[in-house]
Amino acid sequence: MSRKWRWVMGLIGLVLTIGCFYYWFHMSHPSVLPTDEQIIKEINDIYLEADAKEVQDRVAIDELHFVIPYISGRGDYSLSYWEWGLKDWSLTYIDTKGEPTLWHVDPAHPSTYHIVWNFDPRDQVDEISYYLLRDRGFYVSEGVENYQPHIQIKKKITLQNQTYGVMKLPEEFVEIMEGLNRVNGSHHPFLSVDEVLSMQQMYMGYFPMNKDGKRASIDYSVNGQGFSNGTQSFDFVMPVNERDLEVPK
């Protein structure tokens, strides 16, 4: 065998080895989620203040991302967020309360965003209205007058006697967010989608209601503590009041 042929065969072998390693490292299918006991231990080992006692459920975002709501020893209704890493499941975020949170599963694509919640039953939340909001405004930039129209889009969810839930961001929300990102991102190519939307003063809000259709108290579901390992992106969903919303006349 000539030296050139040996060199070619060696190069092919190297490419195949790298390809197999890449497939094993990045394309392997996720394993089964940990048991309830393992989940509770992992949460408490990473963040002692979580005081996890009871796993409520395992809710799939996709094959690589799960939400696991749990109840703490203090009786708080809490949330944990999990993602498949290179070889195992990792706990990416813990919230000791269940206040609605926006999970940017892939920050570059709003179509992957999900709202996650776990309301304490003592707050008696029966329905939630989620909003994509932007206040009306006027400003001058570089001598040019700009009018910023009001945006208010609503999606109502009924809890159906279940404290926790996951909602993929509605298509109408995604279309507006992606449209604004295309228009404004072209002028600011180095900003993320989240930064562009923040610059546009756009935010997510929620209005919790009890069975009588009145605004529910959420005292037991807010002001929690949390832990993040920094591998995933999350944002608060802001509670809103009647005065924050425009009602058609």
Structure in a nutshell:
The protein is of the alpha+beta class and 249 residues long. It contains four helices and 16 strands. The strands form four sheets. Strands 1, 2, 3, 4, 5 and 14 form a six-stranded antiparallel beta sheet that branches.
Secondary-structure element string: HHEEEEEEEEEEEEHHEEEE
Assembly type of the chains comes to: single chain
CA(first)-CA(last) distance: 87 Å
In percent, how much strand structure appears in the residues?
35-45%
* Number of helical segments with 4 or more residues: 4
Number of strands: 16
Q: Which stretches are low in confidence, meaning pLDDT under 50 for 5 or more residues running?
A: 20-25
Sheet with the most strands? 6 strands, antiparallel
* Mean of all residue-level pLDDT scores: 86
Give helix % range: 10-25%
Q: What is the overall silhouette?
A: flat
- Radius of gyration equals 23 Å
Transmembrane segments: 7-25
Keywords: Membrane, Transmembrane, Transmembrane helix
